[in-house]
Design a protein that fits this description.
By secondary structure, the chain is an alpha/beta fold. The protein has a single domain, classed as Alpha-Beta Complex (Maf protein), CATH 3.90.950.10. The chain is built from six helices and seven strands. Strands 1, 2, 3, 4, 5, 6 and 7 form a seven-stranded mixed sheet that branches. Strand 5 and strand 6 form a beta hairpin. It is globular. The N and C termini lie close together (10 Å).
Length: 189
């Protein structure tokens, strides 16, 4: 199936690569929205709200075009791990994730002409190997953790950290592209 061109409301090179590999034509127009998370909002609700907010903000500028917004959070014991403030914070995050299972939640929203066509949340469980300080430092020699939620990228030497995943690998990378493909096929019928 050939897909119609969409607008990606994200500057994420990982999301762009996933869409390219899936054969979905797109144009990039990053959304500029307030991404503050209310303390009483559940992480799944947060990612869906932010995804829809991003897509809606960009859709106002593209009449008739389908806009895809997405937001990803790493959640451990109900606590959100965002992007680390510095290397010490990144080290602390990986130490917290060491030997444990966490969730990666991605909210995805497809918006057209200001109306949400579909918004959903994809959940993947990721179990980390037990890591010591030396292993974490070795990972940081290979990967810059500062621009990544939870201080890691599974597609960049993730085998050094990750024992197993339950769910979509693409979701952990930043966009559940298999689900996006399915939704786009449904919308184009």
């Amino acid at each position: 199936m050939r897909f119609v061109k969409i607008i990606l409301a994200s500057a994420s090179p990982r999301r762009q690569e996933l869409l390219r590999k899936a054969g979905i034509p797109f144009e990039v127009h990053p959304a500029e929205v307030d991404e503050m998370l209310p303390s009483d909002e559940q992480p799944g609700a947060s990612v869906m709200r932010l995804a829809e907010l991003k897509a809606s903000a960009v859709a106002r500028q593209y009449s008739g075009m389908l806009v895809l917004g997405a937001d990803t959070l790493v959640v451990l014991d109900g606590k959100t791990l965002g992007k680390p403030a510095d290397l010490a914070d990144a080290h602390r995050m990986l130490q917290e994730l060491s030997g444990r299972t966490h969730e990666v939640l991605t909210g995805v929203s497809l918006v057209q002409d200001g109306q949400p066509a579909d918004t959903w949340c994809c959940r993947t469980l990721v179990t980390f190997n037990t890591l010591d300080a030396e292993q974490i430092d070795a990972y940081f020699q290979l990967v810059n953790p500062l621009d990544k939620a939870g201080a890691y990228a599974i597609q960049e030497h993730g085998s050094l950290l990750v024992e197993s995943i339950q769910g979509l690998l693409s979701n952990v990378i930043g966009l559940p592209v298999e689900e996006v493909v399915q939704k786009l096929q449904e919308l184009q019928q």
